[in-house]
Amino acid sequence: MTVRNLKFGALAFVATLTLGVGLTHPQTAQAATYTTVSSKTLTKTVYHKKSTSGALYTQGHSRKVAALKTYPNTTWYATKQATWKHGNSKGIYLYVSNKAGSVKGWIWHGYLTKGTAPFGLKYAKGAVAMDASTGKVVWSKAANTARPIASVSKIMTLYLTLQKVNSSSGSWNDVVDTSSKGLIAMGNDSACGGFKFKTGHKYTVKDLYYAAYLDSSNNAAIALGKWVAGSNAKFIQKMNAQAKSWGLTHTSFVSASGLENSDLKTFGYNYGSANANEVSPKDVATISRHLINDYPRVVTDGKIGSKSVDGQSLYNYNNLLSGRKYYQASLNVDGLKTGYTPLAGYCFVGTGQKSGKHRVITVVLHDENEFTETRSLMNHAYKSSSMTS
Prior knowledge:
Elements: E1 13-18, E2 24-29, E3 35-49, E4 55-57, E5 64-67, E6 76-86, E7 89-97, E8 104-108, E9 112-114, E10 126-131, E11 137-141, E12 147-148, H1 154-165, E13 175-176, H2 181-188, E14 203-204, H3 205-213, H4 218-229, H5 232-245, E15 251-252, H6 261-264, E16 278-279, H7 281-294, H8 297-301, E17 306-309, E18 312-315, E19 333-341, E20 345-353, E21 359-365, H9 370-381
Antiparallel strand pairs: 1-2, 3-6, 3-9, 4-5, 6-7, 7-8, 10-11, 10-21, 12-16, 13-14, 15-16, 17-18, 19-20, 20-21
Helix pairs in contact: 1-3, 1-4, 1-7, 2-4, 3-4, 4-5
């Protein structure tokens, strides 16, 4: 993990020190008032936090290095032990470092407990790892708490688009009505656009599918919804009906694109009384599982890094794909959908299939490190015996 906003300065810290007779006593730490009574080298021993209290300090407790709460899922490696005296009290301290050795210092032993830290995600406010074959959740964090999901919402829009394309009522080559002044304005808006609806141009379902999927175009998603159901309102109702048919109880849609009503109102596409789509991590994973299993072409399309449609460049923002910054070859990531609004934060649904394993679906919501944490979550999920083919 990246160390952020570490503050150095004078100490104002209350430490609980273990007395020589086994009692504890709160003492106020003052700089350079801790002296070493004894010390010894340890065989490297693993520890993790016992609570959110405590901090790492330099020798003699003179300067704070890092708060323990900043590293909730870090395994610490102790290599030295010392007894420090402060006033009339003595305490046992351990010299520890993280695996990379980038964070290290002395900490009172009572703030740690032996053993490797349990797996966790530091930044995601909600997350799930699901076996795409069985639907089993193999790891979760606030799995059933509905949250704004931004453009991850387009997973449902894509599902209903593909559902119509694969029925007798629609085809990839159908021309979609893109004449709406609101959608044209949205495409020209730097904050809400991404794909321009040019006057006189004809756009097919396939064109807008790629624009909505790869480039996360909001006006393309809304136009597809109107093509599917006849109107924006009817499409949103269809989104909610589809979720209900799957038994999803922590899902509510008010937008085909994932934009909030506070933004959509400007373009005449606000709907309902709530401001945003709110879906739980588990429900997002379930929708994604239906999309992947019912329409497997999405994992083929999901690997497309960029594509040109009608002279416009579409860029896939999935940075776990081959050639991208966070790529890990063994995970074979081939999808699925990014999302961001200031309200929702960074959201990402990932999917990939490790050799000899079931396909995994991961969801991280409101996660400032969405790609690194997704990669960690995928690797952790594959340690589960249930993920083996």
